[in-house]
Structures are given as structure tokens and as C-alpha cells.
């Protein structure tokens, strides 16, 4: 046996894929899972977005391109992306264009036809004793002295604009400025759709090709989440919205982080149901029951809100607003719960200026539509359903202080989460020669009151008291099959 025939004693180093227990085909399968998940979310968002745009079409013309660009922007914004738009405005050009539209063309012709028959010196109909005219019938302009009150030099000074050159006039009255606007709003419907689709796609991928180890499932989840994030960013950045000559998009780089984290966590939990159940086995049963109760409460409120809001829209003569429900109903439910629990929202008083700020608005504020009082019984009915479900879930044992603690804590945590996810804000920064050397920033936001989590905690206390006092009578009212499904038993 020669030396060349001897085996190599140096072990072969594992490749990157082998180090995470993956092959090229299994990694491509994880990439395909993320791409399929994004495609499915885009298609459904296209449908609900098109319905919302049809509602807008009833009031104003919508460019056809919006139907194709809106889904990508909605997904990106629901991944914590900010929709931004930058435009440059020239005061001189804008003024000339608006003047021509308002006073040129047809207006000149109508003016000539209207007054062509007037003879020289004919009365135009000004009141003889009105404060608008002098005894000679001349208009009074107190803000500008008459010609005979000014010397020739003073009169020239007042009309010194005529002495400006074209460049000087443009510099004084035709300055440009650049405006950058950002708008943030998360559609809870799209966010829930993202979570649901990623969950289903990852579960099916795991059943089709199971991962053999923890590091392999983690690698597959990271690849799926990153792929989903890359598609979210790329589509939002490329398929921009046409806003009358300027282009806006929500393809900020922050999406790559938030969407990747969201996709990875969802894919990880969906791919390893065994590990998920083992993790839940260490969670107190009281916490699991509390989460179930809060979910039932929110779901029951949404189910009750949909027909109520539809009736309200029809009564107000705005039936087309129903088309917006699929895209915005969960956000409306969050604000509706806030009002129904005697909390409220913070809304801006003025957009800008020294008096700008926020004021507290609730059901009993001035100018609030009285129809919104129906949100109170809707909240109470939804709470009764949650009480019945929690009563059935804890049947056969006495509730303890630990049950109460986790229930109140879950209600409070849900309130904090809703407050963070339902903020709607817009800000505009303008800079340029029109503002001198400085810049101006204006911002407006609408959000739930920051102490809403305390209100939700209070309703958690009410729920616990109701379970112990009227839980069994309420559980007897709900059909057993429905109650078992709601309670998860």
C-alpha cells in the first residue's frame, strides 16, 4: 500500500448548511415558505385594499395604479414602516397655475359677457349708504391710503414692487421649499393576516419536511422571516404611490428588522408545535386562561361591532364606508372598546402654532355623536361572554388570588399593546428659501389615552368579580357547544 493510497487523517470541515442540519433543498424550502406567505398576504390585502379604494372612489377619483401599489404599502406600514413623501413647491409657479385655473380662460370670457353691455359711468349696484364706498362711489380701502394722501415719493415707495427686477421678484415672492411628510398607521387586520398566513405556511412546511433539531428549526424560521421581510421592503420601495407628480412609499429600512423578528418568531412557534406545547407547560394555567378570556372579549366585541357600524354608516347615508371595514375594522374596534369602557382618545386641537396640543375626547365630550353611546352595551355584552367562557374554563375548582392577578395583568398588558399599535401620526418638515435658513416641522397624532392600560386593568377586576358572582348564570345562557369552543375545553 503506497503513501498516496492512505486515507487523509484530517476530518473534513462541515459546511454552513451542515452546521445547522440543513441541505440546500431544505433551505430553499424555507425561502419558498417566506415568499409564498408574502404572496398570499399581498393577494388578500389587494382585495381588502381595493374595496377600501372603491369607497374612496365614491367621493374622489382614484388613480388606477393605487390598486396595485396600496397592498405593498399597507403590508410595509403594518410592519412598522412609515409612509414618506418628498415634494418641492415653487410659490411662483404654484401661484401662476392656481391663478390661471381660478381666474383665467373661461372666467375672463364670462366676465366680458357679463359686463359688455354696461355703459361708461353706469352704476354697478353698490349701496349708496354702505360703508364700502365714499360719497363719490369709490371703494374704501382702509389698509391702503388713497392717492391724494400720499406724496409722489411715498406713493412710489408703496408700489416699489414695480421697481423690482424679475430675479428680485422671484427671490422675494417665488421661493421654493421642499416638504417631507411621513404618515404612520398600522392596520391591525393586515397585521393579523401576516401572523396567520406565516403560521399556516410554516406549519405546512414543517409537516412537508420536518426539521431534525432545534438549531435546524431556528435556522429555517430565521430564513423564512428574513425572506418575508425582504419581500415586504422591496415591494414597498419599488411599487411607489403616485401622489400628483410626487412619489411616496413606506419602504423604510426599519422594516427589515421588525418584519424579520415578527416572521421569525411566528415561524419558530409554528414549526415546532411540540416545543411550543412544552414551553406552554411551564406557563401558569391561570395565565393561559386569562389570555383566552381577553381574546374572547375582544373577538365578541368585534362581532357585535360589525353590524352596528354597518347600520350606523347606512343611517348616515354613507353606506360605501362599509367597504372600508375589512381593512380598518380591528382598528375601529380598538377605539370603540376605549369609548365603551369610559376611556377615550387624545386628539390634536390645532395642527400647528402656539396653541397646538392634544385634548382628551370621550363619550361625554362636546360634539361627540350620541350614537356612540351604543358602544357601552356592546362592551358589557362582550364582557359577559368572556365571563361565561372563563367560568366554564375554571369549572370544578375555586378561583384563587393567582387567577385574579393574571387576569388583571393580561387585561392591562392588552391595553398597553393596543395603545402602541393604534397610534396614527403624521409629520411634515419643510425647508428652503421660503422659510429663510430655518425649517418648520408640523406634526399631528391620534392615539388612545396613555393610561388606557389602567382602564383595562379595572375591567379585569370587574371581570374577576363577575365570574365569582354571576359567572354560572351567564354560562347557563350561552349554548354549551359554543361555550366549550370559547373556553377551549
The SSE string, one letter per element, is: HHHEHHHHEHHEEHHHHEEHHEEHH
Q: Residue-averaged pLDDT, rounded?
A: 80
Would you count the extended β strands for me?
A: 8
Structurally, the number of domains stands at: 2
Shape: globular
Strand content: 5-15%
Q: Which residues form runs of ≥5 with pLDDT under 50?
A: 350-356
Question: Which oligomerization state do the chains in this entry correspond to?
Answer: single chain
Q: Radius of gyration in whole Å, from Cα?
A: 32 Å
User: What is the tally of helical segments?
Assistant: 17
Helix-residue proportion? 55-70%
Question: What structural class do the secondary elements suggest?
Answer: alpha+beta
Q: Order of strands across the biggest sheet?
A: 3-4-1-2-7-8-5-6
For the largest beta-sheet, the strand count, sense and barrel status come to: 8 strands, antiparallel
Distance between the termini: 72 Å
Brief synopsis:
This protein has 17 helices and eight strands. The chain is of the alpha+beta class and 489 residues long. It has two domains: 199 residues, no CATH class; 207 residues, no CATH class.
Amino acid at each position: 500500500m503506497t503513501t498516496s493510497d492512505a486515507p487523509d487523517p484530517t476530518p473534513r470541515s462541515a459546511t454552513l448548511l451542515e452546521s445547522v442540519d440543513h441541505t440546500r433543498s431544505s433551505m430553499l424550502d424555507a425561502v419558498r415558505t417566506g415568499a409564498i406567505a408574502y404572496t398570499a398576504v399581498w393577494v388578500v390585502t389587494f382585495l381588502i385594499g381595493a374595496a377600501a379604494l372603491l369607497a374612496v372612489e365614491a367621493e374622489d377619483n382614484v388613480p388606477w395604479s393605487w390598486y396595485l401599489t396600496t397592498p405593498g404599502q399597507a403590508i410595509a406600514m403594518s410592519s412598522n414602516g412609515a409612509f414618506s413623501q418628498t415634494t418641492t413647491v415653487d410659490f411662483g409657479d404654484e401661484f401662476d397655475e392656481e391663478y390661471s385655473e381660478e381666474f383665467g380662460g373661461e372666467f375672463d370670457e364670462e366676465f366680458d359677457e357679463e359686463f359688455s353691455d354696461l355703459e361708461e359711468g353706469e352704476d354697478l349696484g353698490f349701496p349708496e349708504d354702505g360703508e364700502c364706498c365714499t360719497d363719490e362711489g369709490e371703494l374704501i380701502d382702509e389698509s391702503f391710503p388713497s392717492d391724494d394722501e400720499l406724496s409722489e415719493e411715498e406713493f412710489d415707495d408703496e408700489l416699489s414692487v414695480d421697481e423690482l427686477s424679475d430675479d428680485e421678484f422671484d427671490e422675494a415672492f417665488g421661493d421654493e421649499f421642499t416638504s417631507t411628510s411621513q404618515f404612520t398607521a398600522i392596520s391591525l387586520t393586515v397585521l393579523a393576516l401576516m401572523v396567520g398566513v406565516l403560521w399556516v405556511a410554516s406549519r405546512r412546511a414543517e409537516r412537508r419536511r420536518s426539521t431534525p433539531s432545534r438549531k435546524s428549526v431556528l435556522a429555517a424560521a430565521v430564513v423564512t422571516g428574513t425572506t418575508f421581510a425582504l419581500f415586504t421592503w422591496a415591494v414597498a420601495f419599488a411599487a411607489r404611490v403616485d401622489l400628483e407628480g410626487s412619489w411616496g412609499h413606506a419602504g423604510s429600512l426599519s422594516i427589515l428588522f421588525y418584519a424579520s423578528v415578527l416572521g421569525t418568531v411566528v415561524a419558530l412557534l409554528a414549526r415546532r408545535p411540540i416545543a411550543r406545547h412544552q414551553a406552554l407547560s411551564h406557563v401558569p394555567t391561570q395565565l393561559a386562561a386569562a389570555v383566552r378570556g381577553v381574546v374572547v372579549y375582544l373577538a365578541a366585541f368585534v362581532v357585535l361591532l360589525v353590524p352596528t357600524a354597518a347600520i350606523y354608516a347606512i343611517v348616515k347615508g354613507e353606506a360605501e364606508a362599509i367597504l372600508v371595514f375589512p381593512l380598518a375594522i380591528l382598528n375601529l374596534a380598538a377605539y370603540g372598546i376605549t369609548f365603551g369602557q369610559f376611556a377615550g382618545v387624545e386628539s390634536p386641537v390645532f395642527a400647528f402654532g402656539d396653541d397646538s396640543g392634544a385634548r382628551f375626547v370621550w363619550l361625554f365630550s362636546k360634539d361627540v355623536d350620541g350614537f356612540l353611546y351604543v358602544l357601552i352595551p356592546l362592551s358589557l355584552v362582550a364582557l359577559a361572554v368572556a365571563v361565561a367562557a372563563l367560568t366554564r374554563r375554571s369549572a370544578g375548582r375555586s378561583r384563587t388570588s393567582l387567577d385574579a392577578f393574571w387576569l388583571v395583568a393580561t387585561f392591562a398588558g392588552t391595553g398597553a399593546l393596543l395603545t402602541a399599535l393604534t397610534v396614527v401620526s403624521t409629520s411634515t418638515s419643510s425647508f428652503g428659501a421660503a422659510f429663510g435658513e430655518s425649517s418648520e416641522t408640523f406634526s399631528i397624532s391620534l392615539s388612545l389615552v396613555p393610561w388606557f392600560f389602567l382602564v383595562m386593568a379595572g375591567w379585569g377586576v370587574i371581570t374577576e368579580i363577575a365570574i365569582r358572582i354571576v359567572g354560572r348564570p351567564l354560562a347557563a345562557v350561552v349554548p354549551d357547544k359554543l361555550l366549550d369552543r370559547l373556553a377551549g375545553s
